[in-house]
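This section describes the prediction task in plain terms. A model, or a person checking by hand, is given the sequence of a single protein chain and must write out its three-dimensional structure as a string of tokens. No templates, partner chains or ligands are provided. The sample shown here is typical of the held-out split.
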Amino acid sequence: MSLADQKAHLSPVWARYNDIIVDRGEGVMLYGDDGRAYYDFTCGIGVTNTGHCHPRVVAAIREQAGLLLHGQANIVYHKPMLRLVEGLRQVVPSGIDAFFFSNSGAEAVEGALKLARHATGRTDVIVFDGGFHGRTAGTMALTTSKGKYRSGYAPLPSGVHVAPYAYCFNCAIAKAAGRNTAEMSAGAPADSGCCGDPLRRVEHILHANTTPDDVAAILVEPVLGEGGYVMPPASFIRGLRAICDKYGIMLIADEVQTGFGRTGKFFAMEHYGVTADIIVAAKGLASGLPLSAVMTRQEIMQKWHAGTHGGTYGGNALACAAAVATLDVIIEERLVENAAAMGAVLKGELSELQQNNPLIGDVRGAGLMIGVELIDEAGAPNAALAKRTIAACREMGLLVITCGTYDNVVRFIPPLVVNDDQIHTAVGIFRQALV
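The expected answer:
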């Protein structure tokens, strides 16, 4: 069978950025089967935080593969999962001490919502405009970053209420007050004087669309991922915590893309000084093997009725072994600190580029989760420019992808092992491509 025939038998539902066939990866680099090298600033969409094929992670996988590939969690305990619990206890916020493992972020989000419903005896959930939580039936109902993620799948589960996210760059109130782009993006994650309207809208939903007694959880990404790499003012996240405390609602932090050092903190909620009741993690947890986690306090987890949730492969032994090694690498090689330092370099260089290019509307984010919002002369989203730019980057050896409702935000998410020279090279390519 020819290569073209092989490709033809894959589902077209995967929207593809390119036709590169990857032969191997190492650190920040991917290598095509033609031998060409690419700087991978996609990181498997925030997955390979330790870099491609980190030797310690590979060694842990090889060792575990010769011992046990699968031990189903309902039937046996296995040592990699128990070691992972021990490792996570060292890095999660104080008070988080109970864990459930799944395979994907979407599974974990659904699990977290099921847990919140059992823990509170309530049904509804509030999510935010631009949020992405998955593509399963349940998580599609929670996802609003792009209409196509939900198109043709109605009816979706009910009881979901959508509130505005604190997206300062697009905030009509901020614009009316005359705040410029730099002012609107410079303050986050510190309190940059959010107008407070998003929080008022949450309160309105609690009294107009539902009632506090019906809302089990508020589910939020501490930095919007697919919605455009939007980092809100701290007052927004702190205000959500206060609303949850006021009404006995669970605050669920979707840290699927932001967790495990991505934003220069182990978890992005640390930027705001807020601890969620339930944390959802995946992507960077196991350096590329499928593993996700629902993490909470024991008193909450104990309210999850036995047998009402589960999964055959959740907490797979091989994936757990990879996750244990991943945590060791992140801590011992100080990758969180490197993400903060290199993220400052990356954001600084992109911000400098913005000063001389009016089509860069905003540069935002934290750590190595940086978004560049491209606009046209009228200030509208410029998806065409973004598409041309990432194609030109690819031709020059840099892989980046887009996000945002209109696909006009170029996102930079390199592995956390990236260094100064690699960042300078990547920004240089982006500068040439942005024409």
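For orientation: The two ends are 40 Å apart (CA to CA).
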